[in-house]
Amino acid sequence: MDKSPQEIRYIDRKYVAQLFPDPKDILAVEGKGCILKTAEGKEYLDLIGGIAVVATGHSHPKVVEAICDQARHIIHGNAFGNFIYPIQAELAQLIAERAPGNLESTFFVNSGAEAVEGAIKLALKATGRKRLIYFSGAFHGRTYMTLSVSSKRLYKDPFEPLYPWAIEVPFNDIETTRAMMNDDVAAILVEPIQGEGGIRPCDDEFLPALRDLADEFGALLITDEIQCGMARTGQWFASEHYGVAGDIMTMAKGMASGMPLGGFIASRKLMAQFSDPPLIHCTTFGGNPVCCAAAVATIKVIEEENLLQNARDRGAELVGGMNRLREKYPDLVKEVRGRGLLTAIELHRLEDTAAFVAKVRELGAVVCWTVNSGTTVRVSPPLVITKEQVGQALDIFDRALTALRK
Fold first, then answer.
1. Which pLDDT belongs to residue 22?
2. Which fold has domain 5-56+306-405?
3. What strands lie across the sheet with 333-339, from one edge to the other?
4. By three-state DSSP, how is residue 158 classified?
5. Using one digit for the tens of pLDDT, what is the confidence trace for 69-90?
C-alpha cells in the first residue's frame, strides 16, 4: 500500500474491527526469522511467534517458495469432492507418519477452533453420548461449542446459554474427573500443556490417567495440540512426552508457518463416522492446496534444520535463564514454566505484568500475556531462534525487571 504509516493507521482504525482496549501501534511490514521490522524501520525480536504459529520463522525462503510454486499450479478447488490434490495427500501422510498411536486420517480445516469443533462433533457422533469433560484454565476457541469447553467466564457469560452438557473439572485433578465420569460422557478434552491457561503442563500422571479413564468408561480422549503441537515442545506432539495418544487430536497454529490451516486426526475407523450420512461434516476452504504446501514445507524444514532439537536446546536455555531471573527478582517473578519453546514467566502482580510487557517492547522485543492467566507472560518464539537471540531475550527481560523495581 503506497501510503504513509499515519494514513495506514487511520485506515485500519476506520475500516478494521477494533476489538482491543488499546490501539494497535506496531505497523509490521517485514519479517525474517525471529525479527519483525516496522514501517518506521524499527526491528523487534519476536518472542511470540504469532502465538506459536510461525514455526520456521517469518518468511522462511523454502516455505515462501512452496507457497508460490503451489499458487502457480492451483490455488483452490473442491477440497472434499471428487478431486484429489497431491499436496493435500502428501501432507496427510506426513502428519500420520509423525502422529502418536494409530492416528492416521486427517480432516483439514482453517483454524484451531474449527478443529476442536470437528473433533467434538466426531466424538458425539461416534459415541451417541452428550457429556463433555474439560478443565479449568482450558482454552479451545471462541466459537459457540469451543466457548462451551473453555473456562473463562468473562468470554462465556455474554453468550449463555452455551452447550449444557459441558462439565468443567479442576485441571490435574484425576479424582474429581473420575467422579464426573459416567456412561453419558462422550469425550474428555484436554491440552497436554495448557496454552492460554498459563503454559501449564499436565502432571506426569494426569494424562495417562485420563487415557485410562476414557477407556474404562468407553469415552474418547481428545488431545488439543493446537498450541503445544507441531514440534513446539521438542517432540512433534506434546502428548508424546507422556506416552499417550488421544483418540482424536487437534492441530493448527504451527502447522503451516503462518498460513491458515488446522486439522483433526483420528483412526480411519473413527473418522469413517463422518461418512454416514455423506457430507455430515464439510468445509469449503479446509485443506486449501496453498496452505497445505506451506505445511509440507514446514515439516520438511523442521526436520532438515533439526528444529526439534533446537526447540529442546533453546527452550532449556530460556527456562534456565528465566529461572535465574526468578532467583534474582523474587519480589517480581513468581514462577517459570515451559517445555521446549513453549515457555512462560509468571509475575506476582497483574500491574507488573502489563508494565513488563510494555518495557520489553520498548527495549526491542515482543511478548504477550496469556488469555486465562493475566500474570503469565508467554514466550513462544519461532523454532529457528538462535542461542544468541535467546541471550538477547534474557538480557532484555533482565533490564525490564530492573526497570520495574525502580
1. 72
2. Aspartate Aminotransferase, domain 1 (3.90.1150)
3. 333-339, 342-347, 373-379, 368-370
4. helix
5. 999 999 998 756 678 999 999 9
